[in-house]
Design brief:
Oligomer: single chain
Structural class: mainly alpha
Shape: globular
Radius of gyration: 16 Å
Helix content: 55-70%
Mean pLDDT: 78
Low-confidence stretches: 1-74
Strand content: under 5%
Length: 229
């Protein structure tokens, strides 16, 4: 399985370029543990939401929650996609690998939101890029599911079972190899953005990071066009 960034956030692997097989093997065990931790975090997040909803309450941000104003805290789907696109542009033009990783983190966080897997300080620099109170998927895009293009290309299908949908994404990321691109198995294009962001955070090559950002840009563009369907 590919190396996945730690929750404190180390770097995850991937891309069309080759990462050394020795480095991949050395991080495989850690990647397995992190995937398990990601799934447990999703279970915990959904469990909290279900309990609060059952009590007729609302989920309130804690003092430790990272919230910023503007589209990242809500707004329209078009605004959120524009913000993700801004991060992808920074990612594509980054002058250093650290800058590319920070931008990739922002794009991924805006897609999954605080209830999604891996959300937070993915690169371990002490800053949560793309901090938000709700993710593009499923939260912001779900009210638009009657639009068949949004349902197909943004949501990637129904979200009746959120845990299964997130597992689908994590499994595809885990199975990715330079010679086996599993991103097309994900119907949701924003999920693919998360995949390429994950691979960028694992890479030690700026050229690879720029290449992965190019893939992410294509998927953002498909998502934007879905709104015009």
């Amino acid at each position: 399985m590919i190396p996945i960034p730690s929750l404190d956030l180390g770097k995850a692997s991937g891309g069309a370029g080759r990462v050394s097989e020795g480095a991949n093997r050395s991080r495989t065990v850690e990647g397995s543990k992190v995937l398990l931790m990601l799934r447990r975090l999703v279970l915990l997040s959904v469990g909290v939401v279900i309990v609060v909803a059952a009590c007729g309450g609302e989920v309130e941000p804690t003092e430790s929650s990272v919230v910023i104003e503007g589209p990242a805290s809500g707004g329209s789907v078009a605004e959120r996609l524009a913000e993700i696109d801004s991060f992808v542009t920074l990612w594509r033009t980054a002058g250093t690998l650290d800058e590319a990783g920070a931008a990739a983190e922002g794009a991924a966080n805006l897609v999954v939101g605080p209830d999604g897997p891996g959300y937070g300080d993915r690169n371990g620099d002490g800053v949560v890029g793309g901090a938000s109170t709700v993710g593009l998927i499923p939260g912001m895009a779900l009210p638009l599911e009657d639009n068949e293009c949004v349902l197909r290309d943004v949501l990637g299908g129904a979200w009746d079972e959120p845990l299964e949908r997130w597992d689908e994404m994590l499994d595809a990321i885990d199975a990715w190899r330079p010679g086996n691109n599993t991103m097309p198995t994900l119907a949701s294009h924003p999920m693919r953005v998360v995949g390429w962001a994950t691979f960028t955070l694992a890479s030690d090559s700026l050229d690879e990071a720029h290449e992965y950002a190019g893939h992410a840009k294509l998927h953002v563009d498909v998502s934007v066009r879905a709104l015009e369907c």
